[in-house]
């Protein structure tokens, strides 16, 4: 009897202690949650201290209405700065748009003009900017061919040997090809110019017309030939620009597409356009290719399935032909060729501004073209390099920049206004605007060799991770 009462008592007690545990447990849990919340709130506040600057309105309230407008605007800009984020993933493709023939002063003037209309250039809104030194400035005479080789091979300018025929430097474009990427080069100059030469050729002799006979006899191939016969030239998926008179001896001449007597001309018997087609015809397995010479042909072309596209749209430089295709059209078609599922690409575009046409006008056009292009491309590292380095001169010319330096002494003879104008022509560093995956690589001031190395890294061409 006593035993069963004791048992009941014990059961009741156990029941009560279970309840007690539940209550105590609940209290403890809520305490923990509270602590956690406090901790998180404090951390959030610490992390977002700067982002909440707008909430600190006691200072804002103390300034005049005239200043408050700008305070608010400043806060907006700060907020935007804090939101900047650039993915560190590898870009699928890279566009390098090289705009040359524009000084920092001209760019600033154009920019100021546009700002008045509240329409900034698209590259001015890129999150990252770097300055690329222009070592051309310290060389006398400066050779455009060497500058381009330095820029695209990552070897310092003074280490690039100006060899007549067998440069052995690999360009970043060739590296991209070897890594299986599709590649393209588009220019408003001739396709045999210094930029193209540094990308795919081992010489700077543009064509056979001006090449010394001895060099030809020794088997040296000029740039025009190498575009077709070098490994890099053969692998190039897209090549668009001018320079027909360097490729073929017989070319149609119109008043809207004249010959340029200053440039090299193919020796008689040469027809490299035909040779290119024949070479592509022989490829096994069969490849799809097109060779075009008219803007209208390019306009109607469906390039989506092409393996190779060559367009030679002018006898001389592209802008010397009034009927040449626009950069916009060339880039649209280039994208059609380069784009392939699962395969990346590297596209290098050279655009030399015409000194006879208003620079702002040309920049506006480029702004529109680039905007179009970027809308069609996701996961792209887009680089815009603006330069006034005298990358235009052929190897026989003396750099205009160098001349400017030599003329420094004469400056003291000049009036104030003349002096200002001359100073604006002095060498400047190139500006590089970057947007997209890995654009963080472009910051600060760099030697021109940096571009090639950074590009190779961004595209994953080298096994950098084991080296860094
Ligand atoms: C540049 O393009 C952007 C669109 O990306 C446009 O909003 C802006 O007005 C253009 N600026 C100029 C100067 O053409
Ligand atoms: C380059 O060509 C020159 C002759 O033009 C020759 O003397 C030299 O050995 C060549 N160098 C290489 C690396 O082939
Ligand atoms: C271009 O050709 C591809 C494949 O042949 C086709 O799918 C596409 O619709 C064509 N594009 C146009 C604009 O005709
Ligand atoms: C290039 O493509 C863009 C986007 O599809 C288009 O807006 C533009 O009109 C095209 N330009 C030309 C010249 O075909």
From TrEMBL:
EC top class, as a word: hydrolase
User: Where are the coiled-coil regions?
Assistant: 349-376
Is the keyword Lyase assigned to this protein? no
Q: Which residues cross the membrane?
A: 20-42
- Print the keywords alphabetically: Coiled coil, Magnesium, Membrane, Metal-binding, Phosphoprotein, Transmembrane, Transmembrane helix
Q: Where does Mg(2+) bind?
A: 350
Q: How is the cofactor bound?
A: Binds 1 Mg(2+) ion.
Q: Which cofactor does it need?
A: Mg(2+)
The EC code for this enzyme is: 3.1.3.1
Provide a Gene Ontology MF annotation, just one. Answer: metal ion binding
Which family does the record assign? Belongs to the alkaline phosphatase family.
Identify this protein by name: alkaline phosphatase
Q: According to the entry, what is the taxonomic lineage of the organism? A: Eukaryota, Metazoa, Ecdysozoa, Arthropoda, Hexapoda
């Amino acid at each position: 009897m006593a035993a069963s009462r004791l048992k009941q008592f014990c059961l009741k007690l156990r029941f009560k202690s279970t309840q007690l545990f539940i209550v105590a447990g609940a209290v403890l849990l809520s305490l923990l949650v509270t602590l956690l919340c406090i901790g998180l709130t404090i951390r959030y506040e610490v992390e977002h201290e700067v982002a909440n600057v707008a909430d600190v309105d006691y200072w804002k309230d103390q300034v005049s209405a005239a200043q408050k407008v700008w305070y608010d605007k400043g806060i907006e800009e700060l907020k935007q700065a804090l939101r900047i984020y650039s993915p560190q993933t590898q870009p699928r493709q890279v566009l390098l748009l090289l705009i040359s023939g524009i000084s920092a002063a001209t760019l600033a003037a154009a920019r100021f003009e546009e700002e008045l209309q509240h329409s900034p250039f698209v590259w001015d809104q890129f999150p990252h900017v770097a300055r690329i030194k222009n070592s051309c400035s310290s060389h006398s005479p400066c050779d455009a061919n060497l500058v381009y080789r330095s820029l695209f091979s990552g070897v310092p300018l003074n280490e690039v040997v100006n060899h007549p025929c067998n440069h052995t430097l690999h360009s970043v474009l060739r590296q991209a090809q070897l890594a299986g990427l599709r590649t393209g080069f588009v220019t408003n100059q001739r396709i045999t110019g210094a930029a193209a030469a540094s990308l795919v050729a081992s010489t700077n002799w543009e064509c056979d017309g001006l090449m010394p006979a001895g060099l030809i006899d020794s088997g040296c191939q000029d740039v025009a030939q190498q575009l077709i016969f070098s490994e890099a030239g053969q692998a190039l998926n897209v090549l668009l620009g001018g320079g027909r008179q360097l490729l073929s001896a017989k070319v149609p001449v119109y008043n809207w597409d004249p010959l340029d007597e200053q440039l090299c001309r193919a020796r008689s018997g040469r027809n490299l356009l035909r040779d290119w087609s024949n070479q592509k015809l022989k490829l096994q397995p069969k490849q799809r290719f097109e060779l075009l010479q008219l803007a209208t042909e390019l306009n109607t072309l469906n390039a989506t399935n092409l393996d190779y596209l060559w367009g030679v749209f002018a006898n001389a430089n592209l802008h010397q032909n009034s009927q040449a295709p626009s950069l916009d059209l060339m880039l649209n078609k280039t994208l059609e060729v380069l784009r392939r599922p699962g395969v990346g690409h590297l596209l290098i575009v050279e655009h030399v501004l015409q000194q006879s046409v208003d620079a702002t006008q040309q920049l506006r056009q480029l702004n529109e073209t680039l905007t179009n292009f970027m809308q069609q491309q996701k996961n792209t590292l887009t680089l815009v390099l603006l330069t006034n380095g005298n990358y235009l001169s052929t190897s026989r010319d003396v750099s205009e920049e160098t001349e400017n330096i030599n003329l420094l002494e004469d400056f003291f003879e000049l009036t104030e206004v003349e002096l200002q104008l001359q100073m604006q022509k002095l060498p400047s560093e190139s500006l590089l605007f970057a947007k997209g995956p890995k654009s963080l690589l472009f910051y600060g001031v760099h030697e021109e060799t940096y571009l090639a190395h950074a590009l190779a890294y961004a595209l994953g061409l080298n096994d950098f991770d084991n080296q860094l």
